[in-house]
Amino acid sequence: MRKLLGNKHGYARAVGGLVALLITIIVGILVYWQISGGITLTTDTANTSRDNVNTTATTVFQLLPIIAIVVVGGILIGLVIAFGGGKK
Amino acid sequence: MKANTKSKNLKEDKNGYAMAVGGLVALLVAIVVGVLVYWNVSGNMPAMTEQTERFTGYTVATKTGAVWSATGSNASYQNITLNYVPNGASNSSITLVCYNATGGETSAPAVTINNRQITIPASPSNVIGTPLTYSQINVTYTPKIYDDSAYTNTQATTVFNLLPIIAIVVVGGILIGLVVAFGGGGRKR
Q: Which residues contact B63 (CB under 8 A, 6 or more apart)?
């Protein structure tokens, strides 16, 4: 945050980083499900195991975009604190 | 106050305001270009709509008198492989309909879903009496990619809605700093 405030291009870079993060997530979803869909297993145990991994992966994919929201929230809080005389 | 100090620095710098405005414009341009890039990537993802896949080439069982032939594809179980993983492994997550040669709907059997593989159970005449004979199978389903991407898109929309607020907060900070500075806000010399 301090580096961001002291950097003229900091916010633009942060936005670039957030967009890169979101694009990585959505492309990651595509890649994951293409690979997972291509895995053919023969036993019920293996299939159950794969289905469990898929369920967890879905949870992870739902949590990942929250990182971006938290980062934006952090930037906003940092800005407000800085304007209010927070430590530099 | 830091805002006051920063504002003083801004006032004392000849190009200060121009640079601040330039930075804000750069921020807003970065956001709008980010929106453009993100939605272009997201919009070009495959399987972002409900999918309907058709499987053909099945042999229809024939009936001679009261006897069905055992040569139809329905005599044994059939496996089909979808292009994408459907959202869910229960029968309710996909719509599978079998059609006869004239396009008439013959059945919507309960199937087994294993990842992309769908197993249509056998329907031999000697088990059921009247077999669910078909020449084409249509499957309609929502891919898992679509479901997860839709969620990410919703969150991305939230992020893109929040990002311009950074610019508003920065402008607000500059304004507050200016007002405080004009009002003689203390600056230690």
A: B69
Residues B123, B111: Cα–Cα separation, whole Å: 12
In terms of Cβ atoms closer than 10 Å to its own Cβ (0-12, 13-18, 19+), residue B158 is middle
Q: What is the pTM of this model?
A: 0.75
∠ Cα A12 A13 A16 (to 5°): 90
Spell out the per-residue pLDDT of chain A, length 88, in tens.
555 555 656 777 888 889 999 999 999 999 999 898 888 888 888 888 888 899 999 999 999 999 999 999 998 888 888 776 655 4
Q: Does B23 touch chain A (CB under 8 A)?
A: yes
ipTM of the modeled complex: 0.78
- Cβ–Cβ under 8 Å, residues B176 and A83: yes
Contacts of A11 in chain B (CB under 8 A): 23, 26-27, 30, 166-167, 170
* Nearest-by-CA chain B residue for A69: B159
Q: How far apart are CA A44 and CA A30, in angstroms?
A: 25
Comparing CB atoms, the residue among B2, B31, B169 nearest residue A76 is B169
